[in-house]
Structures are given as C-alpha cells and as structure tokens.
Design a protein that fits this description.
This protein is an alpha/beta fold. It is built from 7 helices and 14 strands. The strands form 3 sheets. It has a 6-stranded mixed beta sheet. Strands 6-5-7-10 form a 4-stranded mixed beta sheet. The N and C termini lie far apart (58 Å).
C-alpha cells in the first residue's frame, strides 16, 4: 500500500510459485519490513508466466531458485522478457537473482541431462550441471562482500563460471560458491546481484538488503532519499551469527576429518 507524501517502491517477484526454493520468497518480505520500519511504502507484485508486465513497473526485481524442471518451465517466458530486463539493468535497475534465477540470468545453463537452457545474458557467465553422479554443492556458506561476511545456504547441482571481466559478488570463505573451485560467489553487474545463497539471504544479511533498497531509492528519488536511517538489527544479526557459526564449524570439522 502507498500513502500520499511517502516514498514508495514497487517490488516485482518473478515466478514466485515456481522459483521459491528454500524460502527465497522471504527476500521480498525482508525488503517490505525494512522499508516499512523507515516509513517507505512498498507494493509487491508476483509476475507469472504470460503475465502482462514490464520492468518499467519495478524498482526492485527479485527472482528465486528452482530445480531444472521449474527452470525449463519459466525459460521461454523469461526469454520473452529478456530485452526488457537487460534494458532495465542497463538503466541501473535493481535485481537480486538467486540460484536457478542466477543461472538463467547468465548466458545459458546446461541441465543434468545435457539440455541447454538459454539465459538472458545479464551476467557474463555460463552454468552447467556436471551430471547426476556428481555430488551437489550443499551446505552453509560464508563469503566476504565489501569487507563484511554474507551468509546463506546453498544446494545446487549446477556450477557457474564467470567469464573474464565479470565481477563476482563475493569471495568464498566456507562453502562451494559458484563452482567449488575458483573461490567466487555470485556475480554483480551495475545494480544487479546474482547469488547461490538461499535462506532466504536478505533476512540474514541486513546490510545487503539495505543496499538493494538504497539503490532503488536513489534511482527513483535521488541520493538524499537513499540515505537510510539505521534499524535495530539485533534479531537479524543474531541469525547471521548463528549461520556464520554453523558454516565455520562445519568447515573445521571437514578439515579435521581430512587431516585426521
């Protein structure tokens, strides 16, 4: 809902009924609640296959993760929206794409059966599943983003590889990240962020949530509106600390078993 004289943001959630693994829909809820606490109105719109929608209606676009079959179901519709979304990102539109959404926002994803799913090329990256006999990348993740930790849970068979010049979102401290090999997590292009972190990621990482909000406010209302007053983040930071502890404890246990 919006009120006269108050800033407002429109949040679009792409394919919320299909791409919502591990609570990704909670990212929209986190943005709503952090905006409400600051007197910023929000409107959340779910965008399904075939819906009449344009990114011109959005200040923040969120897309979650799904298994290969869900990604196949949304692929053609996402392709239809590709030019619109690329223009949105070129014009500093704010995006958070998680897991399967992250894969389809790259150039393409090769599924576990070898089928190629074409992406929309926002991130200069490709993703591939190494096959059903190869273990998935599963567990808690800690990564360094702008000198601070971000935490989340990953569960993906696909591996993402960034092409030369594509900026990663963060550097892995514990966990697999994009592919379990190069130490990188996610990707960033302008105000578009891609990540494998579920959880949902924004409730446990309030600074990242605020970054998306601030970017959206700056784009729509200017720099002064983007200056966010601090909130009481004690609950969010406690969840962050617990996830951080779980990830680092698992890492120490794995290292102990390796060298025992």
């Amino acid at each position: 809902m919006t009120s006269p004289g108050r800033p407002s943001l429109n949040i679009a959630v792409l394919y919320p009924d299909l791409l919502n693994l591990y609570g990704d829909r909670g990212n929209a809820r986190a943005v709503e609640e952090r905006c409400a606490a600051r007197g910023i109105d929000t409107t959340v719109l779910g965008v399904g296959i075939g819906d009449d929608w344009s990114s011109r209606q959005a200040d923040i676009v969120l897309v979650g993760g799904g298994q290969d079959r869900e990604q196949r179901r949304v692929q053609a519709d996402l392709q239809r929206r590709g030019e619109d979304l690329r223009e949105y990102v070129d014009n500093d539109g704010v995006v958070l794409a998680v897991c399967g959404g992250f894969q389809l926002f790259g150039h393409h994803y090769r599924g576990w059966d070898g089928e190629i799913m074409e992406g929309i090329g926002i991130f200069d990256a490709v993703a591939a599943h190494p096959g059903p006999k190869i273990a998935r990348c599963v567990g808690n993740v800690v990564a360094l983003w702008e000198g601070e930790t971000v935490v989340g849970f990953e569960n993906h068979g696909g591996r993402t590889y960034l092409n030369d010049g594509q900026q990663a979102l963060a550097d892995v401290v514990s966990g697999f990240g994009n592919n379990g090999g190069d130490g990188l997590e996610g990707a960033k292009v302008k105000n578009a962020y891609g990540t494998y972190l579920h959880g949902a990621v924004l409730p446990k990482n309030p600074r990242l949530a605020d970054r998306l909000i601030s970017l959206a406010l700056d784009r729509r209302f200017g720099a002064e509106a983007a200056e966010l007053p601090p909130l009481d983040d004690s609950v969010a930071l406690r969840a962050h600390a617990e996830a951080l502890h779980a990830a680092l404890s698992a890492r120490e246990s794995a290292l102990g078993r390796r060298f025992a």
